[in-house]
Amino acid sequence: MPKVLISDKMDPKAAQIFRERGVEVDEITGKTPDELKAIIGQYDGLAIRSSTKVTKDILAHATNLKVVGRAGIGVDNVDIPAASAQGVVVMNTPFGNSITTAEHAIALMFALARQLPEADASTQGGKWEKNRFMGVELTSKTLGLIGAGNIGSIVADRALGLKMKVVAYDPFLTPERALEMGVEKVTLDDLLARADFITLHTPLTEQTRNILSAENLAKTKKGVRIINCARGGLIDEAALKQGLDSGHIGGAALDVFVTEPAKESPLFGTPNFISTPHLGASTNEAQVNVAIQVAEQMADYLVTGGITNALNVPSLSAEEAPKLKPYMALAEKLGSLVGQLAHGGIARISVHSEGAAAELNQKPIVSAVLAGFLRVHSDTVNMVNAPFLAKDKGIEVREVRTEREGDYHTLVRVSVKTSDGERSVVGTLFGNEAPRLVELFGIKVEADLDGPMLYVVNEDAPGFIGRLGTTLGEAGVNIATFHLGRRSAGGEAVVLLSLDEVVSAELLATVKALPGVKTAMGLKF
Ligand SMILES: NC(=O)c1ccc[n+]([C@@H]2O[C@H](COP(=O)([O-])OP(=O)(O)OC[C@H]3O[C@@H](n4cnc5c(N)ncnc54)[C@H](O)[C@@H]3O)[C@@H](O)[C@H]2O)c1
Ligand SMILES: O=C(O)CC[C@@H](O)C(=O)O
């Protein structure tokens, strides 16, 4: 039974779903990195929010880990390249808390417009400062949206409902989508010059870090009010403080900080500054949503192999998984076969699906070919890290599909281009289930690729098969199945034998010395 650790505070629904889906679960929160390292080795899955930092060091101790699930959106607390390199799937729940976070941004916009926190503190402090708190209306004001994805577009929708004008800066926003959202797509400079309120909804990347830098803050309208419910680091906090102190910035509300938890900050106590402790996603509804979603996604992966919302591997629905499973087994065996037989630098691997195979999601099939191919040289390769490793090795990967059926109703052809030229192996599924090799380097041969095997290329001549059988028999090696193929009568022939044990180096040398043998190799599946 797979075992999952929930290491951050999460709605109890998550643990309930894991148990219902046959996944054992421990909830142990608040561990230090060293404490986490000591226990992480026993888990197949790790469910987190933002407190647990899944570093390379933690991953190195997570020897059984298959999946990290983030109950939320941002995965900046997970070292995704390290997880990918280790073959660990990283998933998030991209929509579960979007409405809640958008509402928090709108709440902070209202709070800034009417100075609600200061007015509350003053009133509860026994002062009745009716003349001190003069607000601004939102109606007809311009809201500048930086980042118009899931959350940004909900914020835009709510702001339009408040009769604001919304201008958006997002390099990936298409004019059609902007039209659909009812916003005006603008450049960043235009947004800075026009917005009365600015709200940030981008991830923190090298392009967005300090997107509101001192230079850009200086381009804003005097009195601008700024909201950040996305990620700390999008605003230069020192420049923000200066802008608030000088009065150029009329107010700022931060839910997120460069350093979290933000227990101290030069911004604290600044007039017109509001802060919340990363509460964007903190509503009952959002926390139930993300807990259910993360547990379902992780359980799907651990129990059925279905992949949803993964950031480092193509999605594979729980419905698709059983259909693709035999293809992935076939693809892996073909990849392994070419990996064992190919020599020289590999320039390209092409995966060509034909007939029924071409109708399926190709990404998992290609990943399985690469995993089988690369696993020949490393035990730690799996479907998650194989595409990254292939890229690292400079191997070009091609995917081709032909829906028309050929001799077989379904076929997968794996071709490898090396310095010696391009060679292919081809396989099909018998009864839609059993992987079977049907062609090897242009020679028709039918074989199951299973267990230890012996591969021999010889000159087709009478008596050879008998001599080979005798040689193996004399060495006490039992032949399970015998598969033959040849290019032409008297030409090059291929023998593939399934054996009950791995051929020893000594026996291989004897086979190679048989008259007519061109190549002999032990294979393993
Ligand atoms: N405060 C919280 O508790 C909380 C909760 C949920 C999400 N978040 C954060 O909110 C942010 C947005 O989440 P989302 O679900 O809307 O993400 P999303 O991926 O749907 O949208 C992000 C948008 O940013 C845009 N973008 C990327 N680079 C940009 C750039 N250089 N300039 C302008 N736009 C750029 C993208 O094109 C995309 O449209 C994320 O950082 C997420 O982690 C915070
Ligand atoms: O888990 C949280 O409370 C914060 C989540 C939020 O930052 C996110 O990126 O989804």
UniProtKB/TrEMBL annotation:
InterPro entries: ACT-like_dom_sf (IPR045865), ACT_dom (IPR002912), ASB_dom_sf (IPR029009), D-isomer_2_OHA_DH_cat_dom (IPR006139), D-isomer_DH_CS (IPR029753), D-isomer_DH_NAD-bd (IPR006140), NAD(P)-bd_dom_sf (IPR036291), PGDH (IPR006236). Pathway: Amino-acid biosynthesis; L-serine biosynthesis; L-serine from 3-phospho-D-glycerate: step 1/3. Residues 106-280 form the D-isomer specific 2-hydroxyacid dehydrogenase NAD-binding domain. Pfam families: 2-Hacid_dh, 2-Hacid_dh_C, ACT, PGDH_inter. Keywords: Amino-acid biosynthesis, NAD, Oxidoreductase, Serine biosynthesis. The keyword Oxidoreductase applies. Its EC number is 1.1.1.95. Residues 454-515 form the ACT domain. It comes from the Bacteria. GO terms for molecular function: NAD binding; phosphoglycerate dehydrogenase activity. It catalyses: (R)-2-hydroxyglutarate + NAD(+) = 2-oxoglutarate + NADH + H(+); (2R)-3-phosphoglycerate + NAD(+) = 3-phosphooxypyruvate + NADH + H(+). GO terms for biological process: L-serine biosynthetic process. Belongs to the D-isomer specific 2-hydroxyacid dehydrogenase family. Catalyzes the reversible oxidation of 3-phospho-D-glycerate to 3-phosphonooxypyruvate, the first step of the phosphorylated L-serine biosynthesis pathway. Also catalyzes the reversible oxidation of 2-hydroxyglutarate to 2-oxoglutarate. NCBIfam families: PGDH. This is D-3-phosphoglycerate dehydrogenase. It comes from Sphingomonas carotinifaciens. The lineage of its organism: Bacteria, Pseudomonadati, Pseudomonadota, Alphaproteobacteria, Sphingomonadales.
